[in-house]
Amino acid sequence: MEMASTCSIDRVLLVLELLLNSLRDPYVPFDVTFDAIKHMKFLKTFVMCARKWSLVHLYLQSDNVVKKVSLPSFLSCIEDTFHKYEEDIHSLSLRSEIENYTIGSYNSMFRELEKQIKSLKQEIIQIYFALASSRSFQSNSCMTDDELLEFIDLILQNLADLKPLKLDWALGESSISATLSAQVQALEAKLTFLKSFIPFAKMRGTADIPALLLAHFEVVALNAAGLSCMCSYCDDAEEMQIYEQQQKIRAVDFHVYETYMEVLRALYCSASLHTPRMQDKQILSNFNDSLISCLWELLCYSSSFMDSMNDEMHILYARLRFLRRILREHHEMMDEQNEKIGALLSEVGIILFSPTLSRVIEGEVSFSESTQVLDFCDMLANTNIHIKHFKDQISGSSTIESLPDSSHSLRAPEVSQTSSRMLSKCKMPIAHEVMVGLDDEAAKVIERLMWGPEQVEIVPIVGMAGLGKTTLAKKVYNDSSVICNFHIRLWCTVSQEFNMKSLLIQILCPDAKHSRVDDEFQNLDEHALLEMLRKKLMKNRYLVVFDDVWDIGAWNELGIAFPNDKNGSRIIFTSRSSNVASQVQYGGEPHYLRPLSEKESFELLQKKVFGKEDCPQALHGLGMEIAKKCRGLPLALVVVAGVLATIEHDICVWEEFAESLTSTMVSGTDQCKKSLELSYEHLPYHLKACLLYFAAFREDEKIGAKNLMRLWIAEGFVEKVEGKRSEDTAEEYLMDLIGRNLVMASESRSIGGVKTCYIHDLIFEFCKTEAKAKNFLQVLRGYDELSTFNVPPYLHRLSICSSGEDFIKSKLFCPHLGTLLFFDATPGDEFELRDISFHFCIYKHLEVLNLEDINLRLKELPTEVESLLCLRYLALKGRTMEFIPPSIAKLSHLETFILNSCMTVSLPDSIWNMKNLRHVYVRGDVAIGLSSNDNNVVENLSNLDTLSTLCIYFDQGGENILRRIPNVRRLKIFCLALNALNRACRNMSQLECLESLTLGSFNFSGSREHVELSFPMNLKKLCLSFLGLPCRKMSLIEQLPNLEVLKLRVQSMKGQKWELMEGGFPKLRVLTLSELDFVEWTETDPHSDDYFPCLQQLKLLKNSNLEMVPACLGRISTLETIKVRFCRDGVDSLIRKIEEAQKNYGNENLKVIIIG
Question: Per the annotation, which location comes first and is thus the protein's main one (predicted)?
Answer without folding.
Answer: cytoplasm
